[in-house]
Amino acid sequence: MILLRVLILFCLFICCFLSFGQQKYPKQPADILKYIIDIHVNDESNKIKVIENVHAQFTTSIDTLYLDLTNFNGNSGMNVSRVLEQGNPVPFFHKNNRLGILVVPPAKNTPYFDFQIEYEGIPTDGLIIGKNKFNERTFFGDNWPQRAHNWFACVDHPSDKADVRFKITAPSHYQVIANGRHIESLPDVNNPSLTRHTFETSKPIPTKVMVIGIANFEIEKTKYSKNFETSTWVYPKDKLNGRKDFYLKDSILNFYEKNIGLFPFEKLAHVQSTTMYGGMENASCIFYDENSIKGDRKINDLIAHEVVHQWFGNSASEKEWSDLWLSEGFATYLTNLYIEESLGKKAFQEQLIKDRKKVIAFAQKTLPPLKDTLTQNVQDLLNPNAYQKGGWILHMIREQIGKDLFWKVIQKYYEAYQYSNASSKDFFKVLEKTTQKDFSQFYKDWITQPGHPILSSMINENLIIDTITNTTKFQYTIEIKQQQKIQFHFPLEIKFFFDDNTDEILTFDVNNSIITQNLVSSKKIKQLKLDPNCKLLFDEGKPPK
């Protein structure tokens, strides 16, 4: 019986290993409900010691639970010493960065299991242990997209969200931050030079935003509301810079609470860190690159972007990496709406134009669809397709349905998928239900097919005589051509400038590769401008000769 189980274990491992590392994450009939991560760090070495409890629910009978955990490679990685279930040792294997735990007996009529995993090692990645710009020792989680398994065992994919409790034992001279509510900080009973800090979430989050931060911090807290606190955690030498840069943090939060809904987590901490990104939206404790804190008050857009992610990306998360625009596109566009609110329409449109240029430049190199199943390396999905094009999709939707209804769609979508996962189709179902409009052609054009319209325009002029009034008029034939191979369907505004210094905007429905429109006017057209109010994602091509 044991030999049979070992054989089954090996076969299941081979099947999962062959698919691991691709964008399509290997699924299993299990759901992780909670991680309890008891982690010890020290100043003598970069080795961590962890006792982790994994609370799992099985949807069907299985023999093996698979978790992601980086192997020891001779220099770094984790060595698992034992796995327990109800205090009893459980057979396991750890190979090729996957930990397979043999479920004994098989999970039949026993839907819940608690496994205790004991391991130690030097994190290869994910938990970055080093020195900050002031040459002070720091420990920062930096998990995106699938780097959490370098320092704790998990299902390292956004589709499997879980609660997490961190128990962090660290030298007492450090301040410690982590996801969720701070439960307590107590001296270690065995070593008074160490302190044990406990944090716990009350809502499930993906592993990409489960983090701890350990450093010397200057902490400032603000009572945002009766039961909710915001705070800043900056290096002591950057204390004054932090005060200047985060001066609008609460008003930014307030803007999104009014327009989306209540903040989804227990607190909001803004943390200076050594993250490899400009900012990382870790749930309830955003990490900012240490060099972004300069005291010049120029990170409001960055703050807004990461705050939006608390709703979209952390609470309402994408089901698959191919739908990353549901995180990054939302954060990009809702940041632009904050720019519109705080700086005005001109600044808003200037940002839209910058975003459009990035999309056009990216499309000249590669042309994946917005729902990108083609790009296999998840890190490569951090591109203008997910960010700026995703934002532009939302902008075009807002222009078609209006500002008020747009915010209602955003609220309804968040309400439906908070603390869970959604796909592009899920968002469009909410959009259609809320607006009572058909967006199937829009979905096909902008979500599943690559590229964007490349438009050229041509105008022909003829003089005609109005026999009734015996006056001369101008008859124009306007031709709009889509120069790209794949066709799009969209409304296009055209602004006409006349020789008497007046102008007029007309809207044309573009539903073919070439459309023509006749126009009669008593005025002479000097020139025309496509999309004068910045409503369409397009590139302007060369007019035909």
Question: What layout of secondary structure does this protein have?
Answer:
Elements: H1 2-19, E1 30-40, E2 48-58, E3 64-68, E4 77-85, E5 88-89, E6 92-95, E7 98-102, E8 112-122, E9 127-131, E10 137-141, E11 163-171, E12 175-178, E13 181-187, E14 194-200, E15 212-215, E16 218-225, E17 228-234, H2 239-245, H3 249-259, E18 268-273, E19 279-280, E20 285-289, H4 300-311, E21 316-318, H5 325-343, H6 345-363, H7 385-401, H8 403-417, E22 420-422, H9 424-435, H10 440-448, E23 454-466, E24 471-482, E25 490-498, E26 503-510, E27 514-521, E28 525-530, E29 539-540
Parallel strand pairs: 1-11, 17-18, 18-20, 21-22, 23-29
Antiparallel strand pairs: 1-2, 2-8, 3-7, 4-5, 4-8, 6-7, 9-10, 10-15, 11-14, 12-15, 13-14, 16-17, 19-20, 23-24, 24-27, 25-26, 25-28
Quick summary of this structure?
Helix content is 26%, strand content 35%.
Task: Report on this structure.
- By secondary structure, the chain is an alpha+beta fold.
- Among the domains are: 317-448, Neutral Protease, domain 2, CATH 1.10.390; 454-540, Sandwich (Immunoglobulin-like).
- It is 26% helix and 35% strand.
- It is built from ten helices and 29 strands.
- Strand 13 and strand 14 (194-200) form a beta hairpin.
- The longest helix has 19 residues, at 325-343.
- The protein is elongated.
- The N and C termini lie far apart (79 Å).
